[in-house]
Give the backbone structure.
Amino acid sequence: MEQTWRWFGPEDVVRLPQIRQAGATGIVTALHHIPYGIVWSVEEIEKRKALIAADPSLGLRWSVVESLPVSEPIKLGEGDLEPLFDNYRQSLRNLAACGVTTVCYNFMPVLDWTRTELAHPLPGGARALRFNAHEYAAFDCFMLERPCAEDEHDPAVIARAKAWFDKASEDDKRQLLSNIMAGLPGAFDRYDAPGLRRMLDRYKGMTRETLRENLARFLREVVPTAEESGIVLCIHPDDPPRPLLGLPRIVGSADDLDFIIDAVPSEANGLTFCTGSLGAGVDNDVPALAQRFAGHIKFAHLRNVSKEPDGSFMEADHLGGDVDMVSVVTTLLEEQKRRHDTGAEDWRIPLRPDHGHELLDDVGKATHPGYPAIGRLRGLAEIRGVMTAVASMRQLPV
């Protein structure tokens, strides 16, 4: 598979030569400096492409856009959306004109990925991302004070949340808010607790069914343009795949993925298969999902999580945790062979290591949470080893 690496642009602490040293050749990036809903111009796209290709000896190319954000009003189904749909369609056309044709996006309301710890200590001094159920409940019930929030948490978790809140300092509470708001670069709306309450009020009464229909409407509006332009869109699962702060989540199960694919059947309407996001769902059999939806996977995020009975989870080693990564990689390679054998031009599935641990010299560096160099290098090396071994044993194209 095409080995890629997420790069957050010229301000990223991880530099392009380091990415090449890790063995990746595809760059996964976005124009994070452009506000949501604004057209990505050909000039700005070409500028980023030129930056990636500036040193020909590195052999790097812009392989995948992650992400071309969906504006909040589209998720809300709020107001006159035609200008926003027009801008999204034009950005797709401009990306295609510049030769960047795989576009990842998500449909998570308000928050992107959510963790309560960004530097959980591991043996030996490494650090990992972690979601603690009791800290999330403390934020939801006692800091945000969302009405009826306690009804959505296990009583034992609520008890631990109250104990945490009662002993937490103001710095602890500010840090928890900052961790939950961390999301990804390019999120222009950062909230304090009152601001988040106001944003959640806009979603008051939003049901799972309504949010689903808003996603289906978005797909009906943009997939035809993607088809015409030679773009493949690939939706990213919710992270974690469960309701948060009373907000519905609609991209986290086999039923959800079926709905998305059936909403607008098209080769341009595909999936980003994130083993970590899907792996955080207690009812998800990730290898089975990979087999079931293999033909629709256009991009893969390979990482692992270890789940706990109370709903907590932590980023695990790429070959550790609850997901059978060997099985998933085998399925992806077999799907590649099917595409190769049918003569598909774009038979390779780009993959990237995701959410690596902070290791060695990366500990404490100002990398984006979950995106240090050495932890992802380790993850890519482990996945590359699995990929090479499986391909050799099964005589599959790598």
Summary: DSSP finds 14 helices and twelve strands in the chain. The longest strand covers residues 61-66. The chain has a mean pLDDT of 95. The radius of gyration is 20 Å.
